[in-house]
Amino acid sequence: MDAPEDELDIKLQKMSGDLIADFDKSLGPFLRRKDGVVRSRVRSRETERLVSGLLNPFQELPQLLDPHLQKWLTPLVDAFLEYLLKRDTKARHQNGATTDLLMPLPAAISKIIYTLCKIRGEKVVVRFLNNETKYLEVLLSALEQAERAEERWTWEQRYVVLLWLSHLMLVPFDLASISSLSSPGPSSTLEEEEDVGYRDATKRQTNISGFTWPATQVPGITRRIIPLAIKYIASPGKERDAAKAVLVRISMRRDMQALSVLDALIAWAVGALGVEAQTPYYYIGVLGFLSGILTSSADTSDMDVYLDRIFKAVHGAAEKSSDGGPLSSALSRKSVIKVIRAIAVLLLRNPERASQDDTSTEIIETTISFLLEQLGDNDTPVRFAASKALSIITLRLEPDMATQVVEAVIESLSKNVLWHKDPSNPAAPRKRDLSAVDPLEWHGLMLTLAHLLYRRSPPAENLPDIIHALIMGLSFERRSPSGGSIGTNVRDAACFGVWALARRYSTKELLAVPTPERLYKKDSRSIIQILATELILAGCLDAAGNIRRGSSAALQELIGRHPDTVEEGIKVVQVVDYHGVALRGRAVQDIALSVTKLAGLYGEAVLEALLSWRGVGDADAASRRAAGRAFGGISAELARAAEGGGSIARLRRSVELVLESIRGLAMRQVEERHGLLLSFAAVLDSVPEMMVVGMESGAGLEGFVKVVMDALVWILDDCQSKTYRKPALIAEAASTLVVAAFPILQAATIGFDDADKQLLPGAVLVKDDKDAISKRVKAIKTIPEQVQQIASLIKTNLADWLTRTEEEVLPVASDAALVMLVFSGQQQRESTLKEWAEKVRHRPSSGVRIKNTTGYFFAVTKPYQVVATLDSEARNEAQGLVSKALNERWQNDNDVDTHVAILKGLTGTGTLRNGVDMFMDLVIDGLDDYTTNARGDVGSLARLQAIRATKWVWEEFRNTPDRWKKVVGSRLFLRILRLAAEKLDRVRVEAQAALAVVLKPAQGAKLRKDTFSSVGYFSFLLDLLPKAEEWLDEHVAAEVTADRGLWMEELLSGLVSSADTGNEDLVIATRQALTEFCERSADNSLAVCCALVRNLKSRQGQDRVLVPTLEVVAFLFHVGVFANCPTGSIDYKGLCLQVQKACYKTGNVRKTEACVRVYGGIIAAPWGKSGGDEGIKEAKRRLGALMMHPWPRVKSLVVDEIWGWSVVNGGDMVGQQIMGIDWAKAEKGRIKLMVKSIGFE
């Protein structure tokens, strides 16, 4: 998982000024009219713009809004209150109706205030709400009236008003002094009958199920607020939180406690937990209320008398719901934890007294036991709450009891941990096996340790076991049955724990922690160094981006707070950077290598980790490939740093480490085998460099080669004899290993004396298509027996590898085929090439997948250098055999995938470079492939590969003028030009790159700079013909511009598809470029119009080109381009006949519609000097004939064109004759009469 490169906070800081200025400017007009009167309704779209467009982006950096909250919230609050005070009830409900376009002003204001609460927090925003007591009953009455009205308030309105009421509950004098039960509401204009109804409703509200009012006289405000709050405390929305705040505030008031309101609410809440006929949100709200009053009384004794009663009720309800019940939801269980945590904290305000009280002791012990059980809960929020609660309680316990809690947590981490001995090495230390542990419980336990460390609860004596647990957590990983990772949260909690450890404990305390010998017997370093190494491993190799970044942050804290305790500490922090580790590929390969260069101990640790689940055992194939490359690169770096010229010896240790891991794999561990083989190959890639850097004795190199050769025999024989679960992965990895072993096989063949001068990495050699392979083949005199055995095993495996269809296998399998040919005898090479050519020539019989021979297309084209070493007769025979086989297969097999594979196999090889004349027809066929089937335009795959082949050939012959002129010729150039203008983006971008090759450097750079869908890009293509001599390479300009008419025809045959059937932006850009080109000169217009007319004639039957051409012709008629062509330059009557031919007996609706539009363009064009009388007559006649078309849609389109012609030519009479009639349903006689009367027969 890679983090995004773009930092959103930086972008937000840059644009925050504009967003704030826009909100400032918009807020005043949004709330009030120009005369200052508050609005009754506002536009819904404007509200959404203010909220989503201007405020929501600040969720990333909410503090940017702090300086502006007061100036925004003050007018919002004032407008809200003014609306309530100055609008009577009837008007408010009449004008406040919500529609799709308008919404009431209070709803809009509440939406904005809620958004500010969401961004900045309600505790910050509530301070800016008006706290004048006179508005308490105004808000309360408005909420009550909204409950009775047909148009209910939005949840944002209820949330804001309830939050506001909770703020007003802080009034410093008794509520009885400001209560008025007879108060009618916020408006003095209420009718008397409404007042009576209001009083009756208020009295009915006081009857609450399960709630008993105190016997004392309760103020009217209290009697009105409590029923509303209890109602909304069961809401599933945010108003539940505001209602809870109201209840907490009113119950904790001194005057309400004196009136026994707190007693009544506690009794109601405790009783509500025993009622099972409520929604889960009801219990969540009740528990939230209990948690709120307990937290609010943390510094008082107000709740002491209720603690035992509340604990028994809550804990009892939780126990009853353990197997399903009203408190079985995750939010309910989290709320239960908050309540019992608050009770325990209140009891532990005086730990000594609590320890002497049996009831308090029992509650605390029960709480701790309950929280320890909840650490393994299935829901993450519950585990978070339990771990935090346990750490808070532990901080307040006596030291002895706190130590027991820490030990219980650590002991739980040892549960179900298995230890296994290595059967092959009994003396080796036992290995830990975490496969039986519960990852959810480990997350809770690790999180608890982190919270304990953050609050510095554990004494220093417990640090060794805690640190050991954190180290285990940093490398913890488990897979779900579906293969997904379920250990990420454990590692995340461990990062938090190490970060907290570094912050809360001194260097002296950490250095005093002993190193666990059973796990780190090789290390005499401090525990701080071990922690830093583990964090480096997590920061470089972890699959999760948040873990890599969290490890980086913890590493920075560890090194920064404990200086001079970590080797190259400052440099390590700079390398394992928080932003640098965001991209996994960069972290695994670049950062891991950089940290290895700082100190060898880091490289050794990374190598070991790469052989675990973090590297070769990763579920993602791309990550395993990156891990393999990293293993090879780090092994090479360690070999370079080896003292005493021991580079080869160091590489040998890496190889032996990999081989040991491979031997320990079970057959089902295919992914691990894939990663290990790639790691083996990456190590071998560095052998040539190591031989130059530090050449050892011949015995050392010979021993290394012997180890690798034996391993190759064993691995290749294993691949041949066993069938693995994912054979494609094994084929890819084994083929890569064969290619990487090229220098080893070469050293074993030519000897070790001069090997350092001739060896090159196999991946480099197989990509070199000049003469590197030929030189090495010629240097081989005799082939050792073991090398022959390896070559034979490779050939046997290739029978399977070359029949694979996966894209990852084919290139490396064909490279392995090349290696096999290099180390085979001449007769074997000839026979093998003949065998492969036969497989290429013949299409597989039915029942066999056609793609199964595609690997041989690559195998027969790559070994050109090997063929070149044969004697002349054998060489000519082999080359002719390959070219003939490929051409025959191309002609006999029309499958597009086969053509693509052949072109891929040829591209970039000496076979194509030296046989370009023989394969030219194949490339041209590929450029012209427009095959479509159920998959869509599959021919585009062939066109793409043919473009790449053309580009490669052009680049190869760029410095050979004679050959360059021939291979560029108009046959290829004009096709590339056409493809550079067609509608498919992926085709245009490839053709753009190919076309730039034949341009002069300045023009090529300009073409590459333009985006392939811009107006400038298409203008460049159109301008290329007039400026060919100036822009094209001088060697090819004359060749490709010999027929300028053909040039324009080919270009427009591709461009019309972009101008008609591309996406909207592409159509606009193409038509704009074409129009501007025509407007620049009359010659341009004439060239375009004539080319389009010729294409209509030459492309008959090719609807792919014909229909877009008709549409573009109609467009150019309507914009006046055709009308400006010189007189006699275009035969418009002939154009009409070509259009008629295209439309004749066609079932293509789009084509018929395009023909109608062309006829309409001809008759309505503003004819000037070009003339077109004959064309107009023919077009009118054809439109009249199309009025008899059987399709109503065509008739309607013809009438539209006639109407447009009548408007342009002032034909009012014509307009009157065709108006008011549905011509799509008209009778034939009436249609004929109309056609005759307007002169269209």
UniProtKB/TrEMBL annotation:
For biological process, the GO terms are:
microtubule cytoskeleton organization; post-chaperonin tubulin folding pathway; tubulin complex assembly
Q: Taking every annotated instance into account, which residue ranges of this chain make up the domain Tubulin-folding cofactor D ARM repeats? A: 354-416, 441-570
Describe where the HEAT repeats fall, as residue ranges on this chain. 367-404
According to the record, the segments passing through the membrane are none
Entry keyword set = Chaperone
Q: Which Pfam families match?
A: ARM_TBCD, ARM_TBCD_2nd, TFCD_C
Endpoints of the signal sequence: none
Q: Does the keyword Chaperone apply?
A: yes
Protein name, please? Tubulin folding cofactor D C terminal-domain-containing protein
Starting at the broadest rank, the lineage of the source organism is:
Eukaryota, Fungi, Dikarya, Ascomycota, Pezizomycotina
